[in-house]
Amino acid sequence: MKYEVVQQGGELVTGIECNDPAIDSCNNNNFDIDGSGDATSTALYAATTFDITDALTADVGLRYENYQIDYTIDDGRDGDVDFGTSTDESELSWTAALNFLLNDSMGVFGRINQGHLMPQFDTYRDGRAALESGNDLIQDIDQYELGFKWVTDNLSVYATGFYTDVDPRVVTFVFGGNALLTTQDSRGVELDAVWQTDAGFSLSVNATLLDSEISVVSGVDSIPGIDGKETERQPGWQLRLTPTYDFDLGNVLNFDVQGTVYGTVSAVDDRFGEAQNVNTLEGYEKLDLGVIMRINEAFVVQISANNITDEDALTESDPRTISAPNGRYIMPRTFQFSVGYEF
Fold it and tell me: Which pTM does this prediction carry?
């Protein structure tokens, strides 16, 4: 761990002895390992869409993946291999959906996804005890969606209800400690809407309501009760409003100039920093503004201001140590300027 200036591209803080590049870290409680491994993933997939009737459409997709990994860990970097694994796993994922048109502007749809997430090096590192007990650490992910859409010349609305189940989900509380295997299910509603006017103004809305729950599969007895807790870092609701205005300045000094002014207001609900639901990450609101200028339909100039109110907020705390004063913050107020050319 090193101390850095809290700003975009922040450099190391000077005047702190442990920040010297010759010193490994400012924290004596390092998770000090030497890991080495190779992974190969090979996949085949296919998808198709077909019309059952004029109003009813279906699409399906398949993906077959083979995953091979060789991995070893030297805990403490003392030259001895403390853990190693060599696996060769294959899984089949699929998706299927139906879309039914109620009329020319309205429709309903449903989708089922059944997928898999293959373990990575860190998954094997944290879940080595579960692996040795016979769990392959492959996450099975089931998702169900049911939605409604309404599209007109000036308005489009998509409302989707969803349910997701992830099993197992690896949760690590202590660096180098055994992981806790849980299942996570979540349900909610997502709304996407765009309103466009003939005058160049448009407004986009994205909102999500979420309810999540953790259930313990296996793990160590010393971890406090996790059953029924909310999934860490997942807010109960999120809202984003993005107004946009397109304008045309016409000929300016023999240059054809068009532009777009935009902004985004983001609001995020409180969340918990870890699976024990002890530390609350307070909700926040953030405002971003920007302008894009297109000159002769080729040159593009953009100026953006992110977090213009300089809001202080955390997106996550340290899930492995409840009492640690660590956190990952949203970026403070920043300004960006860019120039491009489109061929």
Answer: 0.81
